[in-house]
Amino acid sequence: PLAVMITLAYSVRRMLIDQNFVKKLASCEIMGGANNICSDKTGTLTMNKMTVTNIYIGVDKAIKDVSSTKYNWSDYFHSDRHQELFKQAICSNTSGTAEQASATEQAMLILMKRLGVEVEDERKKHMPENYVRFQFTSKRKRMSTVIHNCGATDHGYDRRVHMKGAAEIVLETCNTYLNDQGEKVPINDNIKQAFYETIKNYAKQSLRTISFAYKDLQPNEGGPQHN
Fold first, then answer.
1. What is the C-alpha separation between 94 and 144, in angstroms, rounded?
2. How far, in Å, CA of 115 to CA of 91, rounded?
3. How far apart are CA 11 and CA 94, in angstroms?
4. Please, which contacts does 120-127 make with residues 24 or more away whose CB atoms are closer than 8 Å?
């Protein structure tokens, strides 16, 4: 007991000097024997603000100036198809606003704003009152939304499902991808490995990588409302 008391007293004094705030005093009892302390950094060691720094569409495009309030589509996207799909994916398959969404989705919505997109206008265009959404869960690690009024699709039907989520999870659901020219290309083993290398390189830079995918639906696929 004496040893514990001495350790506790030393720990409290050390934390007082370091100006550490401890919510549960019971945790102080084991602090004297701790060699490594792990903490969730988001909002604790950081400002809980995120910014899109790279866009990968067959080739890696780094944002030229992340502090700029205005971006040009042509600097990052070489085809109208990319632009339209990317705009749909972010505007329709996110929740909240650039001020109230989660840190990750705030970063995406701010990107749209800097590209000159009116997010709410896009949502009104593609999301009726009874739209179908599959929310993000820790098990699914992805979020999906069925949108309407998509224009030309693979099946001549104006419904499309957009998905975003953990890069590896989303990649495993796909059998094709759009290259840097907006052309649909089958994913073979070599291409998949190149994607994984890109994901790994982003991770080494401490970047959170989010992937986007979509599927053009057919009438009654998954039920009349595709739910």
1. 9
2. 12
3. 45
4. 122/87, 122/88, 122/91, 122/92, 123/91, 123/92, 125/149, 126/88, 126/91, 126/92, 126/150, 127/92
Cα–Cα dist 94/205, whole Å: 25
Question: Exposure string (b/e) for 2-39, b if CB count within 10 Å is 16 or more?
Answer: eeeeebbeebbeeeeeeeeeeeeeeebeebbeeeeeee
Catalytic residues: 40
pLDDT in tens, 85-130: 999 999 999 998 888 888 899 999 999 999 999 999 999 999 999 9
pTM over 0.85: no
3-class secondary structure, 86 = helix
| 30: helix, strand or coil | helix
| Single-letter amino acid code for the residue at 176 | T
198-211: average pLDDT: 92
**Is the separation of the CB atoms in 162 and 214 below 8 Å?**
yes
**DSSP-derived 3-state class of residue 165:** strand
Instruction: Give, in degrees to the nearest 5, the angle at Cα 137 between 135 and 143.
Output: 40
What gap in Å lies between CA 111 and CA 180, rounded to an integer? 19
Beta-carbon contacts of residue 191 (< 8 Å; ≥ 6 apart): 177, 185
Q: Containing H/E element for 92?
A: helix 80-92
Q: Which conformational region is residue 6 in: left (phi greater than 0), alpha (psi within -120 to 50 degrees), or beta?
A: alpha
